[in-house]
Structure formats: structure tokens, C-alpha cells
From TrEMBL:
Signal peptide feature range: 1-20
Lineage, uppermost ranks: Bacteria, Bacillati, Bacillota, Negativicutes, Selenomonadales
Top-level taxon of origin: Bacteria
Keywords per UniProt: Signal
Residue stretches making up the Leucine-binding protein domain: 33-376
PROSITE patterns for this protein: PROKAR_LIPOPROTEIN
Iron listed as a keyword: no
CDD domains, sorted: PBP1_ABC_LivK_ligand_binding-like (cd06347)
Source species of the chain: Sporomusa malonica
Family statement: Belongs to the leucine-binding protein family.
Protein's UniProt name: Amino acid/amide ABC transporter substrate-binding protein, HAAT family
Amino acid sequence: MRKKLLAAAMSTLLMAGALAGCGGGAKEDANVIKIGGNFELTGGVANYGKQAVNGIQLAIKQANDAGGVMGKQIKLVLADNKSEAAEATNAITKLITQDKVVAVFGPATSSNTLATVQVSQDNKVPVITPTGTNEKITVDNGKTRPYAFRSCFIDPLQGTIMANFASNTLKAKTAVIYIDSSSDYSKGLSQSFEALFTQNGGKVLGKEAFLQKDQDFKSTLTKIKALNPDVIYLPAYYEEVGKILKQAREMGITAPFLGGDGWDDPKVVEIAGVAPLNNTFFSNHYSSQDTDPVVVKFIEAYKKEYNQEPSALAALGYDAGLLLIDALKRANSTDPAKIREALEQTKNLQLSTGTVTIDANHNPIKSAVVIEMKDGKQMFKEKVTPKL
């Protein structure tokens, strides 16, 4: 009898402990707003994901230090998509169905983001990519995806900027386009560049392609060299860009290379070397040389937090964080539908890369810049403000 009583007592204590544990978890959940982060933390473009996450975490830290939102602390739940589209789909599915996040940041690349947007639409949970620039992320067959947003400008703007830069600033009459055929991002930029460059009176002498992870580009570069273009448009990511520029300069190709924001990573200098990057230019979202007080304040805060200067990807991650935090405050709710409505109504919001208004296609209307690489450093070249 004594053993039965002891067993019953122990059972009651264990149950009480379990209930207390459940109660603690529920209390914690009640005091936090869980936001997902679906990013490339490992794999081929891990640097992009890590930089974007740094920016997001800084925005969240500042908001939490200031008291949070609705009296709650924001918690970032990260999932590594390993720089692969299939893993990105798995990651967002887990974040929404298991972690029960109310919104998702990421991924960083267009291809990986495109692999996730249908999941966000099906589950009616907003997704904000800081750096996915492909048009189809927010618009599908002419219709705006209700739950898809971004804090970066879109590919056509980048291609347009560099086509005008080639024609007007560099006075180029001929070009060769060299794309990563495995990348939606690369294809999108090349299409808009070609359309405007030819409209400006320029001639595209040839189009060549490579695949991500390729190592030897000399065969294709030999063809490009023979065409002798005024400029070479290379809309790709930093790893391949670095290798192509290194090999091109070794082969005696001296023409200017132009690109997009995928160039923006310190590793491009490590891979290519300092000299091969001279006489190259790329479109970007902001410049660290901007003297705007808002930009300066962000750079100082980022340096204090991470002991390094922020890249454009870090700035866009920070902007994505500010965009969502502002929407949460105005929605005064963690209901994903209300967060979506607040995101759509964003107008004249001051972010690190400029003042932003979200347009009907869920894209931000804001300025862009052209960066020149000189002696291994990024130099501000031009600023472009879109017409409203």
C-alpha cells in the first residue's frame, strides 16, 4: 500500500512538472512575436544569407531594446536553406507549419525565393525577401502575389540603370552579355539590359552563358575577346564574377565589365584580385560613402554591433527588418492578414537605403546607385532616382 501511495505521489509530481513546463512555454510564446528567417547560411552563396541576417538581427535588437512591439519581444527563428531551392521550400514549410511564425524573411537569392513564395501564399503568411530581385517573386502572370514583398528594387531597374550607364556615361556602342544560365536573377537582369541598350542605339554582338560552380571560363572568354565589345555585361554572383574577371584580365580583355548587386561581396576581391576589378561597375542599393545622416547612423550602429562595414545585403536585411517592424506596429496585431495589409500601405518610410513606398506590385520605390571598383575598393559613381 505504501509503495502504491508513493507511486501515485510521484506520478502527480511528474504531471504537475509537465504542466508547469507547458505553462512556461505558453507564457514565453505569449510574450514573443516569432518571425522566420529562411536564409543561405551554408552553401555557395552563404555570404549573402549571413549578411542579410546580420542586418535583420540588428533591426530586431534595436526594436527589442526600445521595448519591442505591442509589449512583446521579436524572436527570429532561423532555418538554413543551404543555398538550394528545394531546401528553401522545406525551410519555409517548417517555419510556417511547425515553428508557427507570423511572417518570414528571405531567402537572399531570387531562385531560392521563387521556390518559397507559393508556400507563403498557400498558408497566407507574408514573406519579405531583402535581396531577391526577380520580378516574378511578387508578380505571377500579371497578378500581384498577396503575401510576397521585398525591400530591394527589382531586376528591370538594375538592367535599365546599367544599360543607360553603358550608353550615356561610358558611351558604349557595342556589348556582349555573359550570363549564368542556371540563375533567374542573371536572366532577368540581362533581358532588361539588352532591351534598353538596343533601344539606346547600342548593338549586342553576342550572348554567352555559363553555369554556377563552373571553374574554367577561358573558352567562352576567347569568343568574347574576338568580338571586341565596348562593354561586357556580367549579371552574376560574386564567386563566378571573381573567377571570370581574373581569367578575363589574364587573357588580355581590358573592356569594362558591368554587373548587378550580386557582385557586392568582399570575397569578389579575394577571388579576382585587386587589379582585375579595375574598370568594372555594378548597380547597387546604397553606397557606404553616402553622407545622408540616416545612412551614417546605420553604418555606425552596424560597425558597433559586428565590427565591420555593412554591405548592401546587410543594409537590405536591416531595411527588411524595419519594414516588417513598422508594419507590425501599424497593424497592432500578429495576424498575418493584417500584417500583409500594413505592408501594402507602407508609404514614405525611412530606411537605411532611402525613403521607401511600397507600390501596387509590392516592390519598393527608391533610389539606386552605380558603384565603381577602384584598387579593390567600392567607389560611389552615380545615383539614380526612379520617376514616380
